[in-house]
Design a protein that fits this description.
With about 575 residues, the protein is α+β, with helices and mostly antiparallel strands. It contains 21 helices and 16 strands. The strands form four sheets. It has a four-stranded antiparallel β-sheet, covered by helices on one side.
Length: about 575
Amino acid sequence: MISNVDAEIFLTLFKGKSNTYVRNELPKERPEAGQKIKTKITNNEGKVDKDLILHHLEGDYGIGICPVNAEGKCFFGVLDIDFYKSKIKRVLHFIKEYQLPLLPFRSKSGGLHIYLMVQKSVSAKSMRNILNDISYYFSLDLIYGKSKVEVFPKQDKAEGFGSSVTLPYFNAEEPYTYLLDLDGDRMRFSDALTYIQRHTTTLEEVKEALEKLPYNDAPPCIQRILLAEEVSGEDTGRNNFLFSYAIYAKKKYGNGFEDYVREVNENFEVPLEESVIEQTCASVRDNEYQYKCKDIPCNDYCNKTECRKREFGLGKDKGHFTGIDYGQLFRYKTAEPYYIWKLRLQGQEVFKDVIFKDEGFLLDQKNFAKMCVRYLNQAPMQVSNNDWYAILNSVLPNIIDVEVKQESDTSALSVLHNAFIRYLSNKQARRDSPYQIRAGLCVREAKNGDVKFYFTHHGFEEYLRNQKISFDMSMLRETLISFGATEDTLVYFNAFGEEKHFPCWSKKEDEQINDAYEGSMEIEEGDKSSVGIISVSEATNTTMPEVVVEEKPYSEQDFKDALDSF
C-alpha cells in the first residue's frame, strides 16, 4: 500500500495545472516493450489532490496533468522520446557522461520520458527553451526522428485542459512507468521519491552544464556529431567528418593535431585505416581548407549562425571572428529606449553589462567596438554586415523588455518632454493678455469643457536655452508632434477690439499637464502663504502695514508701449 505521506510527496514533486486532469484507463499488466498502449482517455475538471494521486499510484486508473499552472509557471518539463530500442541507453550515457541534471523515466509504452524538475517555478517558455537546447545539443531529433521527440509544456499558459503528461509510477508496487538509474535499471518507488527530491535543480545549473560540454569552440556540426556519437559505422560520412575535424584540430592545437584526429578515429565503431588518417592529416597540414559544410554528415547538423560565433567556426576562417560571447539582450523602455547587452570575452566566465544608447549603436559595428573597448578592454575584429546582422538576429528574438517608470526616465527625449510640460504649466500669459504669446508665453483657454495651451516654438526654444537644455532644433517640429502638439491658430481681440489670428502651436490639456499645472498653482499659493507669514516682524512681533496698489485702466498707450517692447 502507498502511504498518504508518499502520495503527498509525489504531489509536491509533480505540480502542474491543479484544477483539471486526464484520466487514463491503463491496464495493470505490463505491456510488451515497444507495444503502443491504446486506452480510454477522458478530460476531467476537478482538483488534483492527494486522493486522486493515490488512485494513480495504487493502479485504479492513470492520471495525466498539464505541467503549466494558472500563472503560466511550471515545476517540471519533459522530453518525450517515443522510441523503444537500444538507443535509449545512449541518452542515459549522455546524462551520466556530462553530468546533466535530468531524470530518465520509462514511459508506459516503453519509450523514454526525460524529466527536468526545478526547485522554483519558471515560465513555461523558459522550460521549453532549455529542453529544446538539450535536444539540439544531443541531436535527439536526428537520432530518433523529429516526429519521435516531443517537448512539454506545449503551452505558455494553462488554458482549457492543455497538453497533459501521464505521470510515472502507475500501480507503483508493480509499475511499468518508472525512474531509471543511469545503468537502465528500475528504481523502486520509495527510492525514486528520495532520488527525485535530491536531484531537483535550476535552469541556471542546466545552462552551466551545457556550457561545459566539450567542443563548445568547434563548429556546431562537429560538436553535435561527437556528442551524439552518430558517425561511427560505414557509409556514415566518416571520411568527410574526420576531414572537417582535422581542420578544427589544426586550428585549435596546431602542431600535434594529428594525435587528436587519431583519438577520434579510434572511437569510431568501424575506424578508418591508418593510411587514410595519414593522408587526411598530411593534406590538412599542408593546405588551408574550409569545413565540409555541404557534405554528409555535417550538412545534417549545420547551424551557420551559431557557427559564425564559435572561436573555431566559419567566422574565423573568413576573418569574421569577433572574440565575444553574446549573452542576454535587454531593452529598457524609456522615451528613447536604450539597451544593455551581457557580453564577455571568449574564455572568461563572467558576463558584463554593456550599455548601448540606441539602436544605431547596436547596428553600427564601430559603435559596438567602442563599447567593447570601454567595458571589455578589447576591440573585436569587424565582420561583414550580413554576418553582424546574423549575430543580432540570433539574440533579438529573445530580447527582454524592461519597463522604466516615467519618474526615473533620464533619456534626452524624456528630459525634453518634461521641460515641455513645465513650459506649458509655468510660463503662462495673463488671462486678459493673450497677445503675450508673441513674447514667448503660453495662452491657456478653456472652451466647451476643453482646455488648450497655445504657444510658439520660438517661445519654447527660448525656454530651453534659459533652462540650459540642449536639443537639435532642426528636429523640434517632429518632436512637438510626437508630444501631441498640433499646428493651430490663436484667435483673440486686441485692445482696439480688432480680431487677430495668430499662427502658432497648441496642445490639449492631458493628465500630465493638469498635474503639473495644479502643482505650479500649489507652489504659488504656498509661496503667497509664506510671504504672509514673513510679513510679521520678528523683531517687534507687530504686523507690517499692508501695501495697497491702486490699479489703473489699461490704456491705448500702454498697449503701444508693450508692442514696441516686443
